[in-house]
Amino acid sequence: MKVLIIEDEQALNASIVTYLQQGSYTCDSALNFREARQKVMNQPYDCVLVDLTLPDGNGLDIVRLLKANDPETGIIIISAKDALDDKVAGLELGADDYLTKPFHLSELNARLKSVLRRRNFNGQKVLQAGSLEVYPESAEAMVDGQKLTLTKKEYDLLLYFISNKNRVLTKESIAEHLWGDHIEGLDSLDFVYTHIKNLRRKLVEAGGEDPIQTVYGMGYKFSS
Q1: What are the percentages of helix, strand and coil residues in the chain, rounded to 5?
Q2: Which residue of 32, 62, 186, 219 has the fewest C-beta atoms within 10 A of its own C-beta?
């Protein structure tokens, strides 16, 4: 799952990124309005954490931009302000939740999981495709009740595929989803093929089918 953290307090921004990356999240970050606007205009996110008070703009304008351009994106407002007007304004614009600083990172994680489950999976706690079951909250996957031993990237890839069933995903979009901002430092995208090959092998070895189709010249498609 891909998350953007928009927070001008560098230490807090870094601590949120570090904490979420320990789970099943790929994180990008922005420290100001200009950078945040550029990121949300150039790539999709599953959820965006938006600080209302940015040094060069208002976080509510980022919320407006997200709702206009990518309304399916989950939005959690984070702010030091505890004013009712700010909370109401953000929620009326379409934000899913609101956290007042300071907050525990575990609480943020719980709110994030809840928003993503509502947004991406219609509240489902289990995603199924044939004998395959994926549990987004615990970051686990099973085939016929047998737990798969997946790396973080393999799990992220599987969740990305099952969230986009029957859609062709390009190698570039997969790489961007798995690596976020770090994709710019990669020499090639060969690792995408390696992760897909390993994921296919583990699904088949567990007794499941290989639902990942290669669409030559375009990318890959997860067919259920």
Answers
A1: 45, 25, 30
A2: 186
